[in-house]
Here is the input.
Amino acid sequence: MYDIIIIGAGTAGMTAAIYARRASKSVLVLEAGAYGGQIINTPDIENYPVEAHISGYDFATKLYEQTAALGAEFAFERAEKIELNGDVKTVVTPYNRYEAKAVIIATGSSNRKLGLPREDELTGRGVSYCATCDGSFFKGKKVAVVGGGNTALEDALYLSDIAETVYLIHRRGDFRGDEATAKRLADKQNVKFVLFSRVTALIAEKRLTGIEVTKNDGTVSTIDLNGLFVAVGRIPENRKFGNVLELDGAGYAVSGESCRTITPGVFVAGDNRAKEVRQLVTAAADGATAATEAVKYLNTL
Ligand code: NAP
Here is the structure.
């Protein structure tokens, strides 16, 4: 029986583990993939206090090392569900059943897809959701990024140093992402903005060769491409935990600033929580809050 099981080894989950270990609580961190979460795909973090520049990979590795050195246990298994039995929470994975007095759900979010025919089949054959993972395959080639948030802007900037041409396709005229990044993109000779437009079809035989783009006025055109990077936001990973969470209309877990949920002893931290700002620093802040609240809860048992 652990004091706290943390589901998700991203920034929120690992920060929660640091706070819980420093309060001398036993901690198991469950992670379905690799440690680090979403930030691992960011080439250069420029907005985290103290470090002016650090890669997402280095950030995640340092955080993992700090967390493990404090004595948090890790198991690389996917949490499939949480069962409640009085005050005991059982987290079920394909291999084990782990018990804890408190659980922090820090599962983050996954890529939203465009929902186009053949999108899944062409993933890895010209369609990608990760510019830093796959960008190097498109050296000197033509690529497009779709989306208008910080991910799309940063992906386009990153790809502009690799690809011959980068089309940035966005359904509106204004970007949701930072103005400063949009200005840097506008100064790039090889970045072309395709605004008020949506990708409406993928053109391919075995690999992607182009896309169909439809402007908001209905005009349809095609762009020849080698790669399409989809960056149209993320979907909160709360679906397996609906029995212990209240979800808002978009699927985010409702918690308030305390990170407490409707289930006593179950907390939520990071990008899967309903909140205004989803940044690295707010993920870390959530981890600290959720662990502190979990420790308070344990002291009441
Ligand atoms: P996001 O901010 O939610 O932006 C998603 C973008 O995709 C929006 O521009 C949206 O258009 C567009 N979109 C959504 N569905 C679409 C569809 N079906 N077809 C076409 N376009 C669609 O997502 P994100 O860029 O992944 O960022 C997620 C969060 O992480 C944000 O809070 C962001 O600031 C943060 N982030 C921060 C950093 C950083 O601090 N360095 C880096 C990356 C991400 P509309 O604008 O028209 O809605």
